[in-house]
Every structure is written in structure tokens, then in C-alpha cells.
Design a protein that fits this description.
CATH class of the largest domain: Mainly Beta
Distance between the termini: 52 Å
CATH topology of the largest domain: Neuraminidase
Helix content: under 10%
Number of domains: 2
Shape: globular
Number of strands: 39
Oligomer: single chain
Structural class: mainly beta
């Protein structure tokens, strides 16, 4: 067995680690079910509804289609598989994003004469029903590996495209929730190749990253940002500068904090690297090496929610077969937990994707423990560590403050006081009284606390947030309850 030493920045309790549930097999069909690479996302969450997307060749080994399933109880139980495409060519590499009840999917499809084009479809009722397939590109070259993100009604899609002779990054957007689309926008114009773009959105800001070998003939990570929902973009920003290869970036954002991960072989073998910006991608911190292993660490995926950031990746350092590992940060990426191994089997676990909402963290990946590739899932219902103590004051009474700012887009802060050890739950409800998020659900010592609530996945409107404090030992005797109103304005 190889010795593995992981970069440790922040110690965390075993209680947090123990909250991960068992591996759940989501596909059982005897064929191969394929997860996408890390620049896309195969999982998205809004409220208690978890959405998962993948490609599957159960109909024919020479023709994959896009399949979907959902959980409406935060990952406890799952619907049957829903086939989203029915075409003569391959439909593969799907990416999914969600805003409230609106679910958006992009993928590549070769139904149009054997070259891949980008296709899109949407659901406006949380995945229960789906609209028609929409062809987004029509080019003589290959349009490949899309990544999709949404903020309110603005939907962003990026992909790599060789219509210009070499691969470049292209972009298009919809400003009305996927009903209509802009023309294709060429984002790069290089002598080399621009590959594997990833896109994220937070409020009116949008971010894209990709790998590019145009300058030094080795791949480096580059970025753009937009301050106006993708209407215009900054000049490019070079994020890495070394003589090795920096590949497969993934980006996520919450508020003004932007997080990027990738794998990098500057250390002789591929390791996971990370960097962040705390001012909407204008300035960036240093590269942070997240893994220090004798094996290979690849294909990281990252998610941000309030003060929380979480990443997953595949790693073959321990048993010489790939397993899924996880880090998290509760302070916007300033420091990170020790690693946690999420899978442990003799087969290959690869291409993980991570999503978060409320207090829950959700992960899907590709796994061949059953003799063929299947989609697996696991969750941590209390994995988002976002509650922060304020000072050393011991309050005399329970109190829930008005959120600030209000109205807000997309992040607001909720402050509350508890005079003694209590089990605290904060729930967010829409105007119809449906629970859409649960940002706090944990035991807390007496004190004053704040929690950042990220509404990136919710639509504009009026919402209510309710705090409930109960006896910390029994969890039953209610000690305090209060409700206040908040407004999301996008």
C-alpha cells in the first residue's frame, strides 16, 4: 500500500465526517451509464429536490442517450430513470443546472450528420415534465463538452468548438430562462487549442475558465468574468504560469467569492490545485496545492454556497485504484479541512461531481464495481458548515434579526442569538409555504451567530425564514420560534 500525505490546513471533528451516508446506486440497467468530465456538472440541487443527469447506452451499445432522475426528499429516495433524448446518433456529456423549479440541461449530440452539436432542453416544474430538444449550435466543425450555469432567468452555456480549424471556446446565453438564445460568441482566438471550459454564475456576475496551450505550448488555466449577465466580458486573465500542464478546470462562485480547481502535473504527477478570488475575479490569490500524493489526483469538481466551498476528485494513491475524495472550507476557501475518502471498493470510482444547497452536500460519480459503469450517489445532510460565531457575548434571550441586505441578490446574512445550548433549525419558505432551503440544522452553544444564505438557485420573490430552537438533548421541547420576511431581487 502506498503512503499518502494530504495537505492539511484545518482540523475538523469526526462528527462532521460521520454524517456522510452510504453509497447509493442510481442506475441498474446492465449497460454503461456515463458521467461527464468535471467541467460539466451531473448534479444540481434546489430546495429538497436533487437532479441527476447522465449518458446511457442501455438502448444500444452504439448509441447513448441522455437520462435523468430526481429526488424530492433531499436524496433519501429517487424517481425512476427518465429518458430525455431519442435520436439516431450519440447524445452524451450532459451538464445540468437549476434555479428554483427551472431545470436546464445541455449536452452534445451527433444526430445532425455525424458531427457533434450542442443541444438544450428544460423543465419548468422541477423535472416532472420536459420541453423539446433545442439545437443551440449549427457549425461545420465539432461543438463539444458544454458547461451550463444559471442565475435567475439568465442561462449561460460554454463549450469548445473546432469550426475555426483549432479548438476555441464559444459562449451563448438566454435572458428569458431558455426560451430564446443569443448568437454564438467566440471567446478565444488563438493559434493553439482552448479546451474544457467551465462556467458559473452568481447574481449578475458570470465566470468562465478553460485550459489553453497557445502561449507556451503547454496548457495553462485562463479566466473571463462578466459583470452584466454575460452581455460583455473582461479581457482574459491567466491564472497559472508554470512549465507543466494545468488541465480540466472547474469554477464555482458565491457572492464575490470565486473558486477554481484543476489538476496539474508541475510536481511530476497530477495533483489537485486551487485558487480563489474574493472580489468577483478581478484579483486572484496564489495557487494552492491541495494534494501531495505518490499517485494521481485528477478531475476535481467544486461548489460554493455562502461561506462554504467543497471539492471532490478522483485519486489512486492509496489502493492503486481510483477512489473519490472530498475537502471542504467553511470560510470561503481561506482554509480547508483534512481530506475525507468517500468511496472504498476494489473497482474504479471516477469523474465526481458535487452540489450543495441548504445544509446538504451531494456527490455523484461513475463506478464500475458492478461489472459495468453505473452512476452512484451519496450525501451529507449537514455538510455545509456555514454558521459563524460573532464575538464572545452570551445573549440573555433568543432573537432572530432581520436579514441584511434586504432585498438581496444573491447572498444575505441572517443573525440570531441563543442564550443556551440548543438545537437550531432555520428554514426558508416560498410565498406558498413550501420549504426551499434549510441553511442551519445543528446543535449550537450559547452565543450570537450569523449564517450567509445563498439564493443563487432561487427565483426573485418574497420568501420567509423561520428559526426554531429546541432542547439540545431531546430535540423535542421547543424553546423559541420566530419568522421574518426576505426579498430576493434579481
Amino acid at each position: 500500500m502506498k503512503t499518502t500525505i494530504f495537505f492539511l490546513l484545518l482540523s475538523v471533528s469526526s462528527h462532521l465526517f460521520s454524517q456522510w451516508g452510504p453509497d447509493v446506486r442510481l442506475t441498474i440497467d446492465g449497460a454503461n451509464s456515463y458521467a461527464s468530465l468535471n467541467n460539466a456538472r451531473n448534479i444540481a440541487v434546489a430546495g429538497n429536490t436533487v437532479h441527476v443527469i447522465w449518458a446511457d447506452d442501455r438502448i444500444s451499445s452504439s448509441n447513448a442517450e441522455i437520462y435523468y432522475k430526481r429526488s424530492t426528499d433531499a436524496g433519501l429516495s429517487w424517481s425512476s430513470d427518465i429518458r430525455l433524448t431519442n435520436a439516431s446518433g450519440w447524445s452524451t456529456h450532459p451538464s445540468i443546472t437549476v434555479s428554483g423549479s427551472n431545470v436546464h440541461v445541455a449536452w452534445i449530440d451527433e444526430r445532425d450528420g455525424g458531427n457533434f452539436e450542442i443541444y438544450y432542453k428544460r423543465s419548468t416544474d422541477s423535472g416532472l415534465n420536459w420541453g423539446s430538444d433545442v439545437r443551440l449550435t449549427s457549425a461545420t466543425g465539432m461543438s463539444d463538452v458544454p458547461s451550463i450555469a444559471v442565475s435567475g432567468s439568465i442561462v449561460h452555456v460554454v463549450w469548445q468548438d473546432n469550426r475555426d480549424g483549432n479548438y476555441e471556446v464559444y459562449y451563448k446565453r438566454s435572458t428569458n430562462g431558455g426560451l430564446n438564445w443569443s448568437t454564438d460568441l467566440r471567446m478565444t482566438s488563438n493559434s493553439g487549442n482552448s479546451f474544457n471550459p467551465s462556467v458559473a454564475a452568481s447574481g449578475s456576475y458570470a465566470y468562465m475558465v478553460w485550459q489553453d496551450n497557445s502561449v507556451d505550448n503547454n496548457f495553462e488555466i485562463y479566466a473571463y468574468y462578466s459583470t452584466n449577465d454575460g452581455a460583455s466580458w473582461s479581457s482574459f486573465i491567466r491564472l497559472t504560469n508554470n512549465s507543466a500542464s494545468s488541465e480540466y478546470p472547474c469554477v464555482s462562485a458565491s457572492g464575490s467569492n470565486v473558486h477554481v480547481v484543476w489538476h496539474d502535473n508541475r510536481d511530476g504527477n497530477f495533483e489537485i490545485y486551487y485558487k480563489r478570488s474574493t472580489n468577483n475575479a478581478v484579483n486572484w490569490g496564489s495557487d494552492v496545492r491541495m494534494t501531495i500524493n505518490s499517485g494521481i489526483s485528477q478531475y476535481p469538481s467544486i461548489v460554493a454556497l455562502g461561506n462554504y466551498a467543497g471539492m471532490v476528485w478522483q485519486d489512486n494513491s492509496v489502493d492503486n485504484n481510483y477512489e473519490i475524495y472530498h475537502y471542504f472550507s467553511s470560510n470561503n476557501g481561506a482554509t480547508w479541512s483534512s481530506f475525507q475518502r468517500l468511496t472504498n471498493n476494489t473497482a474504479v470510482s471516477r469523474y465526481p461531481h458535487i452540489a450543495a444547497f441548504g445544509s446538504g452536500v451531494h456527490v455523484v460519480w461513475n463506478d464500475d464495481r458492478d461489472g459495468n459503469w453505473e452512476i452512484y450517489y451519496k450525501r451529507n445532510p449537514t455538510g455545509v458548515v456555514s454558521v459563524q460565531p460573532v464575538g464572545s457575548l452570551i445573549p440573555q434571550d433568543y432573537r432572530l434579526s432581520q436579514n441584511y441586505p434586504n432585498p438581496f441578490n444573491p447572498v444575505t446574512m441572517i443573525e440570531f442569538d441563543i442564550p443556551k445550548l440548543s438545537y437550531i433549525t432555520i428554514r426558508i419558505y416560498d410565498i406558498l409555504g413550501r420549504e426551499v432551503s434549510r441553511p442551519v440544522e445543528q446543535r449550537l452553544e450559547a452565543g450570537r451567530y450569523t449564517v450567509d444564505f445563498d439564493a443563487s438557485e432561487l427565483s426573485s420573490g418574497t420568501y420567509f425564514y423561520r428559526i426554531e430552537a429546541s432542547d439540545a438533548s431531546s430535540g423535542s421541547a421547543q424553546l423559541f420560534r420566530d419568522v421574518k420576511k426576505m426579498i430576493i431581487l434579481k
